[in-house]
Automatic annotation (TrEMBL):
A Pfam short name: AAA
Region (Disordered): 136-159
InterPro entries: AAA+_ATPase (IPR003593), ATPase_AAA_core (IPR003959), ATPase_dyneun-rel_AAA (IPR011704), Methyl-DNA_Rec/Restrict_Enz (IPR052934), P-loop_NTPase (IPR027417)
PANTHER family the UniProt entry points to: 5-METHYLCYTOSINE-SPECIFIC RESTRICTION ENZYME B, TYPE IV METHYL-DIRECTED RESTRICTION ENZYME ECOKMCRB SUBUNIT
GO molecular function, one term: ATP binding
Protein name: AAA+ ATPase domain-containing protein
Biased composition (Pro residues): 139-150
Lineage: Bacteria, Pseudomonadati, Myxococcota, Myxococcia, Myxococcales
Gene3D superfamilies for the chain: P-loop containing nucleotide triphosphate hydrolases
Residue ranges annotated for the AAA+ ATPase domain, each copy included: 174-366
């Protein structure tokens, strides 16, 4: 109910009840339907009356409470008539806007002797307690102006995403956090961001990210003065710590310029995200962590590492600095990226590996399609280069391959030879030089003798001059002659 922004009762086998007639005739029809289900005889009369009232008497603008015994779990304002959701066991529904999802006790209401589907609250002290609670949480008054459409007010169910995004979605649903790992240039960060944007857009607005308005995109990526963004990003590095991620004492000037320097306890990025997620539990919040393995993760996450597992979400731990109880909400998801050329995944802490799902991304030459630049077929050329890396770089060559993203921009393959040549000269060659560790013989085997002068221990960068384009093409194709275009001649 919370995530679907509705109030609902079970009974899918009864079918769509919108066909019921009003008054006693409709109540009799419902009683007959319930009688056919079996097992309801002792309560059939009460159940049919309450379910009939739920379908026929709950109106737009009414306030509804979801309760367990004497505790209120949520207060909402009805925003539509009855409808039937056949895909859910809790299929009889009214759409609501949640005014509050904070739990609180309801005074003036005794414990019910038996389970009920619907009952009316008429005790004055109970109504006063509800009003007081809503004023405290600053909920919008019933019948007041509706918020702008760029502010997400309800949660939508997520459709299954296609391809790799669907695999990421499945791991997040199962584990709550995921690491994308693989060689450089396989599109890990791009895929992590795009998937988080898509899932957050569907959660908040029921539409894909590309279909959102500019204001709605801002709600996903930037947030507002009062509400934080649904998708946030950070990068781990050796000096990144618990203070930036959870909480820590940070310096600031006390008073005007020149005043004494003081330290105050400030919330970190992940703690602020969790606090925002607790205030809007009907939405989903995503944190993308780039270069995950470059940070000291156990130190950065501290005691929260133990409560990341789905079975422990919502369980309080005491923060080490403030001593306050804190928990990770169920609607928070983490997506990390990890470059296996920097550090092997086997070096990660075992406790950390147990709490994260992992998805490997390898070079995909097929992503370049049939793109060619000056006769060089990008996909086959990249595949041949990676085969040479596997053969000559050593046993870690699999993790040191070159990803297809090096030769893509704006979601498509490169089509301009000048840009391709710059990628080779400025990105690819320095990367391969690092892989070979000053072994010029190995570098020659990777790039070919026309491009690498092994005796002089240098790369022939002069071939990248604009007037030597033909020579550069021949040098790049020299290690893989099978990729040269066959010459086609014809006679008159």
């Amino acid at each position: 109910m919370r995530e679907a922004a509705c109030v609902a009762v079970e009974g899918r086998a009864l079918g769509d009840l919108s066909r019921l007639e009003p008054g006693a005739r409709g109540l009799k029809q419902l009683g007959i339907l319930l009688g056919r289900q079996g097992g309801l005889a002792p309560r059939a009369g009460k159940v049919s009356e309450q379910l009939f009232d739920f379908v026929m008497k709950v109106r737009e603008g009414d306030r509804v409470l979801v309760m367990r015994d004497r505790r209120v779990l949520g207060v909402g304002r009805v925003e539509g008539g009855y409808f039937f959701e056949a895909a859910s066991e809790f299929s009889h529904r009214h759409q609501v806007h949640w005014l509050s999802l904070e739990e609180f006790p309801l005074v003036g209401e005794g414990r019910m002797s038996e389970r009920t589907l619907l009952r009316e609250i008429d005790a004055p002290e109970s109504i006063a307690a509800i009003e007081q609670h809503l004023r405290r949480v600053a909920g919008p008054p019933p019948g007041g102006p509706k918020p702008p459409s760029s502010t997400p007010q309800r949660g939508y169910p997520l459709p299954p995403l296609p391809g790799l995004q669907g695999r990421i979605q499945a791991v997040l649903e199962r584990k709550g956090q995921l690491i994308l790992y693989g060689p450089p240039g396989t599109g890990k960060t791009y895929l992590a961001e795009q998937t988080a944007w898509e899932l957050a857009a569907y959660s908040a607005f029921g539409r894909p990210f590309d279909a959102l308005s500019s204001a709605q995109r801002d709600a996903v990526l930037q947030g507002s003065e009062t509400e934080g963004a649904l998708v946030r990003m950070c990068g781990f590095h050796p000096s990144y710590g618990y203070e930036e991620f959870i909480e820590g004492y940070r310096p600031h000037l006390d008073g005007e310029e020149g005043g004494p320097l003081r330290f105050s306890l400030r919330d970190g990025l992940f703690k602020r995200l969790c606090l925002d997620a607790r205030q809007r539990p009907h939405l989903r919040f995503y944190l993308v962590i780039d270069e995950f393995n470059r940070g000291d993760v156990p130190r950065i996450m501290g005691e929260l590492l133990t409560v990341l597992e789905p079975s422990k979400r919502g369980r309080d731990v005491l923060l080490s600095l403030s001593g306050e109880p804190f928990h990770v909400p169920e609607n928070v998801y983490l997506v990390g990226t990890m470059n296996t050329a920097d550090r092997s995944i086997a070096l990660l802490d075992a406790a950390l590996r147990r709490r994260f799902g992992f998805l490997e991304l390898m070079p995909d030459p097929d992503a370049l399609g049939t793109a060619r630049v000056e006769g060089i077929a990008l996909g086959p050329w990249l595949k041949a280069l990676n085969q040479r890396i596997l053969a000559h770089v050593g046993r870690d060559g699999r993790n040191l391959q070159v990803g297809h993203a090096y030769f893509m921009e704006r979601g498509g393959p490169l089509t301009d030879f000048h840009r391709f040549a710059r990628v080779v000269q400025e990105d690819l060659i320095p990367l391969l030089e690092e892989y070979c560790y000053e072994d010029w013989g190995a570098l020659e085997k990777l790039l070919g003798g026309d491009l690498v002068d092994r005796k002089q221990q240098r790369v022939r960068h002069e071939l990248f001059a604009p007037d030597r384009q033909h020579e550069l093409v021949q040098a790049l194709l020299a290690p893989c002659p099978e990729l040269r275009e066959d010459e086609v001649t014809s006679s008159p």
